[in-house]
Amino acid sequence: MKLTKKSFIKGILLVLLILTQIPFLIAQNKPIDSTEISFKSNGDKIHGWFYKTQGEVPFPTVILLHGYPGGDGDLFKLGQTLTKEGFNALTFNYSGTWQSEGMYLPETSLKNVESAI
Asked: What is the rounded average pLDDT of the residues 39-56?
């Protein structure tokens, strides 16, 4: 079988594509640790968790917003699942719910989202 310039270039591109996926494959096999975090929103301490993907490349971050008033922790293990798929994840409790300070209102919840961003 004769190796043409076109098939050689396709082979190189395939190898490069595979190499770009290695950080994501490595991240999927490492254990997932969450870090408890807190931040201020309207002067109230907001409690949450950050799930960081393992790897050297920068990964996008997803902010998980649960329903009102939500639950405490990683609902449905979405943070862990996203981390395995190559995303960082941040989840938190709205003001006045679970371990977060303040008064629970739809308006304060929107402010919490702005503060998280």
From this structure: 93
